[in-house]
């Protein structure tokens, strides 16, 4: 732990540095690969929308030892068209989700499940969601997402600067797109809990990005008056200075979410938790990546196009070249030596 804290101190003082900004094309390429995979998953498989969005019927049977095969056989015997989604919830419940059914089909499924599992029809928890209600939920979810992005953009533009807002929103879109693509690849149902998870990761991603941007603003407040470093160099120093903090914060956030996903939903079978926990786990990991590898390089690239920053880069480059050529060089025995490799003088007693 002491070595890790020592590394954080060296990163903060600039004694050790990782070139995040200079290698931005490498990070863009990695993100591009994940974005292409997400596009392929969304194109080939698409999102598995839950009945809350597309409408349908849900039947939950409480019976110890109930299996998916038994539930599927019951639905088949009821003559229900289309593919049904059947999953276990814990060790004593099984849930069957179908498309939109009329009253006769709904009763047929209830009777078939009651007969297969030897339970009363009244004990089966039945929920019917109409397609119009699902469309309304979808529309409200999209309104909430776009409203969130607009409010965040306005706040960042006023609190920091417009180009920081653009870079932050680019990172958020990057996070959501990759998270949705992985969600499509895994095949989990998209439920209202999933939407809550998406909105949560938007907030967390922006929180981490704002912390990095605040340090960048501090490092670049009077950068044009000093000519000691370019905007990219000052941005890279800020990312290094906040690196340990970002990693620690993300690790602490991922541990409980990982416990919910792998222990709660995986080992204990709490199926109602996996929709939320998967979105949170992927989003937190991707959000940490984007706040370090995507948002700062995008910001630096936007700012370096400004005439003032281009003039600053020329002054810094000229100052560096002057410092390298102005060092005195002497000739000793036919060998040219600079001030650091000159022979030591012997002092006579």
Description:
- There is one protein chain.
- The chain folds into two domains: 2-49 and 133-303, Multidrug efflux transporter AcrB transmembrane domain (Multidrug efflux transporter AcrB transmembrane fold, Up-down Bundle); 56-129, Alpha-Beta Plaits (2-Layer Sandwich), CATH 3.30.70.3400.
- It is an alpha+beta fold.
- Helix 6 (131-159) packs parallel to helix 8 (192-219) and helix 8 (192-219) runs parallel beside helix 10 (271-293).
- Helix content is 66%, strand content 9%.
- Strand 3 and strand 4 form a beta hairpin.
- The chain has helices at 2-13, 24-44, 51-54, 68-77, 103-117, 131-159, 162-186, 192-219, 231-267, 271-293, 295-303, 307-325, and strands spanning 48-49, 56-62, 85-89, 93-98, 125-129, 189-190, 330-332, 335-337.
- It is elongated and about 90 Å long.
- The two termini are 51 Å apart.
- The longest helix has 37 residues, at 231-267.
Gist?
The protein is of the alpha+beta class and 349 residues long.
Give the helix/strand layout.
Layout: H1 2-13, H2 24-44, E1 48-49, H3 51-54, E2 56-62, H4 68-77, E3 85-89, E4 93-98, H5 103-117, E5 125-129, H6 131-159, H7 162-186, E6 189-190, H8 192-219, H9 231-267, H10 271-293, H11 295-303, H12 307-325, E7 330-332, E8 335-337
Parallel strand pairs: 1-6
Antiparallel strand pairs: 2-4, 2-5, 3-4, 7-8
Helix pairs in contact: 1-9, 2-7, 4-5, 6-7, 6-8, 7-8, 7-10, 7-11, 8-9, 8-10, 9-10, 9-11
Written as H for each helix and E for each strand, in order along the chain, the element string is HHEHEHEEHEHHEHHHHHEE
**Strand ordering within the main sheet:** 3-4-2-5
List unreliable stretches of 5+ residues.
330-334
- What percentage of the residues does DSSP assign to strands (E)? 5-15%
Provide the number of structural domains: 2
Radius of gyration (Å):
29 Å
CATH architecture of the largest domain: Up-down Bundle
| SS content category | alpha+beta
Largest sheet properties = 4 strands, antiparallel
Q: Percent of residues in helical segments?
A: 55-70%
From the N-terminal CA to the C-terminal CA, the straight-line distance is: 51 Å
Number of helices: 12
CATH class of the largest domain: Mainly Alpha
User: What value does the average pLDDT take?
Assistant: 79
Number of E-state strands: 8
CATH topology of the largest domain: Multidrug efflux transporter AcrB transmembrane fold
According to CATH, the homologous superfamily of the largest domain is Multidrug efflux transporter AcrB transmembrane domain
Query: Given the C-alpha coordinates, what overall shape results?
Result: elongated
Oligomer: single chain
């Amino acid at each position: 732990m002491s070595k890790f804290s020592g590394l954080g101190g060296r990163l903060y003082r600039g004694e050790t540095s990782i070139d995040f900004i200079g290698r931005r094309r490498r990070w863009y390429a990695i993100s591009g690969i994940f974005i292409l995979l997400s596009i392929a998953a969304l194109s080939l498989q698409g999102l598995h929308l839950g009945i809350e969005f597309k409408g349908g019927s849900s039947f939950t049977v409480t019976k110890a030892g109930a299996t998916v095969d038994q539930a599927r056989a019951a639905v088949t015997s009821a003559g229900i068209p289309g593919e049904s989604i059947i999953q276990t919830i814990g060790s004593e419940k099984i849930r069957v989700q179908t498309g939109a059914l009329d009253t006769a089909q709904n009763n047929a499924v209830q009777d078939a499940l009651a007969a297969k599992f030897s339970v009363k029809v009244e004990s089966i928890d039945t929920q019917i969601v109409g397609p119009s209600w699902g469309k309304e939920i979808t529309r409200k979810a999209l309104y909430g997402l776009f409203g969130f992005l607009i409010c965040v953009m306005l706040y960042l533009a006023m609190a920091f600067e417009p180009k920081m807002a653009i870079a932050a929103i680019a990172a958020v879109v990057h996070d959501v797109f990759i998270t949705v693509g992985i969600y499509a690849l895994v095949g989990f149902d998209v439920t209202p809990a999933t939407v809550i998870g998406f909105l949560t990761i938007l907030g967390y991603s922006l929180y981490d990005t704002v912390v990095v941007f605040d340090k960048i603003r501090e490092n670049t407040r009077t950068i044009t008056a000093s000519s000691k470093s370019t905007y990219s160099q000052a941005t890279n120093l800020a990312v290094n200075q906040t690196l340990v903090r970002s990693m620690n914060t993300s690790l602490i956030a991922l541990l409980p979410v990982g416990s919910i996903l792998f222990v709660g939903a995986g080992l204990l079978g709490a199926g109602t938790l996996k929709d939320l926990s998967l979105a949170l786990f992927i989003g937190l990991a991707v959000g940490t990546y984007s706040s370090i590898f995507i948002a700062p390089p995008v910001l630096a690239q936007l700012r370096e196009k400004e005439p003032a920053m281009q003039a600053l880069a020329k002054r810094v480059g000229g100052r560096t070249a002057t410092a390298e050529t102005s060092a005195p060089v002497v000739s000793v025995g036919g060998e040219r030596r600079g001030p650091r490799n000159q022979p030591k003088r012997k002092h006579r007693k």
